[in-house]
Amino acid sequence: MSSTEPGHLPEPEPRDFRRLPEPVALEDTVTSVDVRPVPDPDGGRDPDHEWMLRHA
């Protein structure tokens, strides 16, 4: 279908990314996920080592 045929609508021009937003300073950002270290679920013990000693 050529553009001269009746009923043909021209393709709309893409409007995304014509103008990018202003850059954000790193000092203005905040974390959305807690990044602190999690506590050790084994309490500092090695369960594999204890299992080997128990069942060796």
TrEMBL record:
<feature type="compositionally biased region" description="Basic and acidic residues">
    <location>
        <begin position="37"/>
        <end position="56"/>
    </location>
</feature>
<feature type="region of interest" description="Disordered">
    <location>
        <begin position="1"/>
        <end position="56"/>
    </location>
</feature>
<protein>
    <submittedName>
        <fullName>Heme biosynthesis protein HemY</fullName>
    </submittedName>
</protein>
<feature type="compositionally biased region" description="Basic and acidic residues">
    <location>
        <begin position="8"/>
        <end position="21"/>
    </location>
</feature>
